[in-house]
Amino acid sequence: MRLVVDTDAFYKLGICNLFEPALSLFDAGLADCGRLPALPHMLRRGKLATKLGPEACEMLLAIVEQMPKTPGSKSEWLGKMTAVSAIDIGEAQLLATAAESDLLMLSGDKRAMRQIPNVEGLAAVLQSKVVCLEAVLIALCMRDGVPSVKSRIAPLVPHDKMVSICFGPDDPMEGLNSYYNAISSEVGHGVLWKWE
Q1: Rounded-to-integer distance, Cα 156 and Cα 146, Å
Q2: Where are the domains positioned within the chain?
Q3: Parallel, antiparallel, or unpaired: how do β-strands 3-5 and 104-107 relate?
Q4: 193, 104 Cβ separation under 8 angstroms
Q5: Please, are residues 180 and 192 in contact by the beta-carbon 8 Å criterion?
Q6: Which of 51, 66, 156, 163 is deepest in the core (most CB within 10 A)?
């Protein structure tokens, strides 16, 4: 396993057919990417099923079935994170797994990311390991070209405010960089992965 992915990042990139291109940024495939055990249930009967509809969920389920479940973490990191109420148990599991196994974490949960500095020692362990949605979109735009990403992003516009703002008629790069820099300043210097 090279990275773990949270539900937000998975479905947001998945509905645009950008999830596997995103994984390729890290020389990873679906088999290298851990996900929460509850993700298939969320796509069948949970909030995501209601939010995205059956057609999108079926497409996402076909991808999820090729991804391994993350091993549940029982490390001290999990204990430290469950004490922070703004980090839900799923994000805590993924962050703990990333911290203890030296993995990247692809996350769309800014609320949880902002709590990393509040967990003693976590920011130091996760240096350049947290991959936010903005960083992925910047890297894809740089590698594949803005028109290619723009042509796929439409299904995400109703589900993500940042995407609806950045991917208007103008070039999205300035907005994406602005969002990335804002998150980076909240999460702590060096925690977020940066494209090269």
Answers
A1: 16
A2: 3-187
A3: parallel
A4: yes
A5: yes
A6: 163
